[in-house]
């Protein structure tokens, strides 16, 4: 009697292979993809149990949960790719409640024909981001759609985290008089993506700022536990995020254009393309609201962290029933900084 | 940013504001029309109006190609886009402009039409090359600044032997529109700020007959806020001295005769239409450009035998009066209520260069201030 091999007949061809429909069928091919690619990359005790769910104990207290889908085009861009972006995006959404992120889930929708080499690169990048952040991917799912029914790969991640005792950070807590602090230069991610779009490529040294911000948030919460609100200004940029908070909190804001940290290259690219850096996406920045008397301590804590070195106070919260976000322009005038209208740039994250 | 910040300098702005305040006579008002939407945008974005004395009133002109395109032309573009086998290419702002029955190219796209947003006429050519089995139509709009690139695209299509490329021309002419506004006598315009990019192509000379006929000073100005303020100062001085000359603030690139090479390119491909319908201004003679018979193969209107149907504006929409400089956006009943940038009724609310969009985006908090 011939001996049957226990493993798969041949390993996944991560060099020249492609995703095919069997990789989502629930059969052996899918098991092989999960085992040789996802498990190998994300390896941890939860995944090793090979269950359809992860089971873990949580400390007592208030838990937060956030989910984020990623459809960025192109998949690889200066400074990052859809893999690390999908980890950073969800960690940041959890962290903006002041929470310590604990676990992630990852769900992949793959298009038939997608090169396994690209998938491996993306998964490796996710795994690295997750390891660096200290937040493991503990459960996941994979589906395959027919050719032309997807666009390579879409990734949805969900995260859970715990809020430290005594911290109450929420977008509806900005109060008149609060200082508005941004953690660094704005608009980098949007311009980095724009620079590699096939119909609009231009030369720039700008890299995406994609980064996990929970370390910075932890340092901020330690310095000023009474932070009122935090948010990461992703799609729609800083302008849209400030308008969201203004509406949630029922307040207005007054910004000072001269205090906004914007890289020269970003300003130049936006100027050239007729865009406004205030509406260009960020993936590694946050905006914080705190009492004026806490601002110095918070700013110092932020600047002491590698991801907050260029932090700056950019304005203050004012009373305004209309909820207008306004700005004193460098030119000496004053104008509204409105919500983003339409879509400045599709599929940015 | 080098070479940009110099034209947005706050200290210089304050000095210019003081000069304007000193020169503007308090016993009269100055109604100054900035023709171009780019100027409107700059005035709002940088808060220029707030730096001017109360008796200088900026009137926003029709120089926004999206705003002046009549509904009938938008309908034609939507009709074209919905034909099977057609790829319609156009600039981003056009996608959201409402046609009749609240249709738009964006909605046509969502309904399955192949509509592509492009950044230049060269992109449309590239799409035509990549899709030889499709009819690629470039929905061309704009004043004299965008016409030369369209002419180049048509000439280039000829060189490449492209059989599947055509242009739906909606190019219009600045001096004709200003003359139509002055001729109507509705708006109280004492002086005109002319757009520098248009004059980079056509020069400052085409304004001379108009300035003489209506005894109106014209200053050709750049698009940085200091350019606009300098132009305002120059207009105030001309008016105080009773002059009505064509002056050039934008000596950085504008000459009296303009860019002769670009003018020749345009003349090679285009000719004046007998008349063209404008939103707000109605039918204006010699105000639009059509493709010459020699290049008829690239003329989408001929190729697809597009009929033209004039369509009346939404009854509550004041775009027409706003484009003519007769009314301000805040005088429109639907401004900011039914009509917003996210859900525009009229074209002035669509483009960032439209007066309504500029008011809404940058200045709607100033409802109680002068406007």
Set down the secondary structure blueprint.
The complex is a heterodimer of chains A (349) and B (371).
Chain A: H1 28-42, H2 45-48, E1 62-70, E2 76-77, E3 80-81, H3 82-95, E4 100-111, H4 116-133, E5 137-145, E6 153-163, E7 179-182, H5 188-194, H6 214-223, E8 229-231, H7 237-249, E9 252-256, H8 264-273, E10 287-290, H9 295-303, E11 312-318, E12 325-328, E13 334-336
Parallel strand pairs in A: 4-5, 9-12
Antiparallel strand pairs in A: 1-6, 2-3, 4-6, 7-10, 7-11, 8-10, 9-11, 12-13
Chain B: H1 10-23, E1 30-36, H2 37-45, E2 56-63, H3 65-68, H4 71-81, E3 86-90, H5 105-110, E4 114-117, H6 121-130, E5 135-142, H7 147-160, E6 165-171, H8 174-184, E7 191-195, H9 196-202, H10 208-214, E8 218-221, H11 225-240, E9 246-248, H12 260-269, E10 270-272, E11 275-278, E12 282-285, E13 289-291, H13 300-303, H14 319-323, H15 355-363
Parallel strand pairs in B: 1-2, 1-7, 3-4, 3-5, 5-6, 7-8, 8-9
Antiparallel strand pairs in B: 10-13, 11-12
Helix pairs in contact in B: 1-11, 2-15, 6-7, 7-12
